[in-house]
Amino acid sequence: MNSDERSLEEKDERTSARHRSDSESSTGPSTERIEYESLGGFASLIALTFVGVSIWYLTWRLGTFNEQALGFSLLLYGAELYGTLTALLHLFMTWRLRIRVAPPPPAGLKVDVFIPTYNESVELVRNTLIAATHMDYPHETWLLDDGNRPEMAALAKEFGIRYLARQENTDAKAGNLNNALRHSKADFIAIFDCDHAPHKSFLTRTLGYFRDEKVAFVQTPQDFFNLDSYQHRWSPNRKLVWTEQSLFFRVIQRGKDYWNAAFFCGSCAVIRRSALDAIGGFATGSVTEDLHTSIRMHKAGYQSVYHPESLAFGLAPNGVMPFLKQRIRWGQGAMQVWRQEGVVFARGLTLAQRINYFASMATYFDGWQKAIFYIAPVIVLFTGTMPINALGAEFLWHFLPYYLLNFWVFEEVGRGFGNTLYIEQYNMGRFAGFAWATLGLFRKRLSFIVTPKEIPPRQESLRLLMPQIVILVFNATAIPVGIALFLYWRHLPISGVVANVIWAAVNLSLALGIVLFSLRQSQFRRKEYRFPIPLPALVTLADGTSRYMTVDNISSNGCKLYGAFIEPPQVGDLVRGIIFLPAGRIPFIGEVTAQIEAGDEEERFVKAIGCRFVVQDWLYRDQLKLFLYGSDLQWQLLSLTERIPTPSEWIAQKMGLLPSSSQFMPKNWAAMLYRIAGEKNPHEVGLVTMTNDRRPEAVLVFRALPKGAMIDGRFFTRRQAGDFVVQAGEERALQSPLSPMYLYQVSPVAVSHVD
């Protein structure tokens, strides 16, 4: 999570109020005083209005059934009733969001870090091990290899960590973890999936909660470093990166935490060993051992903590196939847990916990509801059979307030993380998978399937998208057919045609959007994510000249180099250089793989080269991996956010009642050499970003500068070099796994340019 969201969660008073719960309730999480963020006054009014309008609308709908098509009428009404029920459950979960401040960790705790793996690549696991072994608090790292592979044993030996393998894979991930528990003597177990690299402060930010002996586990968000994944939507111009799980980890889990109902998500968490022993270890018998273990701990009377700070970063599914397989497994597991443990009538759970668990598990029935909504206008336009007998002004008078308030309330309780358009696209993309997953309620045995990390072939993506393609074709066909039938036979009233054509067009646009997005993602073939993190570099070209340049799109395998190229290196040429990091420098030799041009047709120039590292010391390579993985530095440097204004905030901004959110958004960075006025140190290396008229706007350096320092520097852009003198202004420290970087907004004093 970036700094703006942290600030929002810690002290955003604009749209919501903070309170302390002073009452003790049988449905509440505990008798302690709980600090929380409540839905704001105006948003609360909208939500209560929605509740009243929903009752009014659904009551009116009881008298609108078409007796000639009663089954169709009841089916559509049931879908609407289900939607309202889930909306009310969502309101219950998210009305109050728990506020957490991490207590300091006690000294001397014995902590083991479990990293289970099965068939993942050595490089992927290596990234996680580098980050895990560099966490601040004393701990022992275990690599739990259910694949029993020699290369994993060698990797564990290289890092000097514990290695544990099994000959069989009984109970999949849960069995792997339980096997490790039999060998571990630690009091606390931190768990990371083998693609989740933890931040160095993960343990120091979570262990303090265990001062309360009732706390069984601390869960943190599952964030992801590959912002170009299937579940991410990146709008570079708006600095917005929304993910399909934003709402869950930023809002829903915090709401559950208020009711002591946040659940363990299988990774990025710490669990008390004695609590695991009390319930017999990690729960088996389902394909979601995390949810299963959570409900057993809550039934045993333990408390859970959701710490909403992003402290680990994993690999999100890159294509539709791994995305859907993961969601189907989650849904099937939820159904298994529901059948085995009970939810609504489970002993040991508070009423609020039952409601929260029921809300999460009932979500997967959304697939059936969406299927009804996607096919209903097709039936109407093809057959002329209406599911209701009221249309025209009467229908609009009742339906529009209910429909519009539904979306409005969703955005308000989502606190800006809802993003209805994208949510509806993903609903279209996963409706068939969710519906299929609910059948797990009737299946006793299901196989645990590890989420594939590779991108599926285009043919596989098309196969998985068949339900969406069918919806697309049916709705696209129904529109002209329905219009033609109306023109020739008047098979529907005009209001019915208009309403259902609009409905079908919405379904068509959603299906088309998700199909095209999925097919674009299936063409993605880059093996390793390139981080959009700028760094300064000193590069020696083939002609022997050395130039300061700017690194971007960097991974442990290569990068882009931006700078002034008098004689641009050709594809296949070798370049040598040094990349500067906050705590050291990385020498490299790279092969040029591409020339990136810019300019107009009359004046083209090479602004950057793509570079693949061909020689790099393993020690330096691991240092670069440590810098890149296990932090949200790309969010900080690019000023990215997941959040958009809610409707009430947007209205308040337009009325001048609330200032528009603004933040410094750096554009293009250039390498610089600089010295602080009055210091006799050698020139240091950093980065500077310029305005459109080539005036320095901000600098990025690897040490804290004196307040108001005068910076005497020289910049190196893609087409120019020049000197400048600026004064450092507002400071922002950007945390990295190596050491902090410091961003200063600056005021220009003098600038000169040299072509």
Structural description of this entry:
The protein has 755 residues and is of the alpha+beta class. The protein has 21 helices and 27 strands. The strands form six sheets. It has a seven-stranded mixed sheet with strand order 6-5-4-7-13-9-14, with helices on both faces. It has a six-stranded antiparallel beta barrel with strand order 16-17-18-21-20-19. Helix 4 packs parallel to helix 5 (150-159). It is globular. The two termini are 40 Å apart. Mean pLDDT is 90; it is low at 2-18 and 22-31.
Largest sheet: 7 strands, mixed
The helix content, as a percent range, equals 25-40%
Terminal Cα separation, in Å? Answer: 40 Å
Mean pLDDT: 90
Percentage of β-strand residues? 15-25%
Instruction: Name the strands of the widest sheet in spatial order.
Output: 6-5-4-7-13-9-14
Radius of gyration: 28 Å
The low-confidence runs, each spanning 5 or more residues with pLDDT under 50, are: 2-18, 22-31
Helix count equals 21
Number of strands: 27
Shape: globular
Structural class call reads alpha+beta
